[in-house]
UniProtKB/TrEMBL annotation:
InterPro entries to which the protein is assigned, alphabetical: Sdo1/SBDS-like (IPR039100), SDO1/SBDS_C (IPR046928), SDO1/SBDS_central (IPR018978), Sdo1/SBDS_central_sf (IPR037188)
Family the entry assigns: Belongs to the SDO1/SBDS family.
Species this chain originates from: Pipistrellus kuhlii
Gene Ontology biological process terms in this record: ribosome biogenesis
Listed name of the protein: SBDS ribosome maturation factor
Domain Ribosome maturation protein SDO1/SBDS central: 3-64
Domain Ribosome maturation protein SDO1/SBDS C-terminal: 66-133
Length: 144
């Protein structure tokens, strides 16, 4: 169960400076350093989210961002964008054609709140599409 928790943490998290994922072995070592003990009454995912909070205090770690695309009606889109701004980490692109289209990065913990806000404010006319569950850098690091 200890290894399962470490695997979930490694899968969900990145180094915020490099946007690269951590290895399971490194997460296991960090969990041992903070003296984390497994609770058999809780699910591994629930414990992994707790471990992430504890590891944030000891090392540079954060949840990998999700990449989303919103398609909103133009008339409600501008008002809704202002309400969504505090929940969005980075806006990658905006397009005003017949509809407002926004591609952005968010913290995975805000997904449900954003989805409910879009459905409520646009009365079902707006849509939310997950483009990428986790935004991470892949491949070898390049040195210059």
């Amino acid at each position: 169960m200890f290894r399962d928790i470490a695997t979930i943490v490694a899968d969900k998290c990145v180094n915020p400076e490099t946007k690269r994922p951590y290895t399971v072995i490194l997460i296991e070592r960090a969990m041992k350093d903070i003296h984390y003990s497994v609770n058999t009454n809780k699910s591994t995912k629930q414990q992994a989210l707790e471990v992430i909070k504890q590891l944030k205090e000891k090392m540079k770690i954060e949840r990998a961002h999700m990449r989303l695309r919103f398609i909103l009606p133009v008339n409600e889109g501008k008002k809704l964008k202002e309400k969504l701004k505090p929940l969005i980490k980075v806006i990658e692109s905006e397009d005003y054609n017949q509809q407002l289209e926004i591609v952005c990065l968010i913290d995975p913990g805000c997904f449900r709140e954003i989805d409910e806000l879009i459905q409520k404010e646009t009365k079902g006319k707006g849509s939310l599409e997950v483009l990428n569950l986790k935004d991470v850098e892949e491949g070898d690091e390049k040195f210059e």
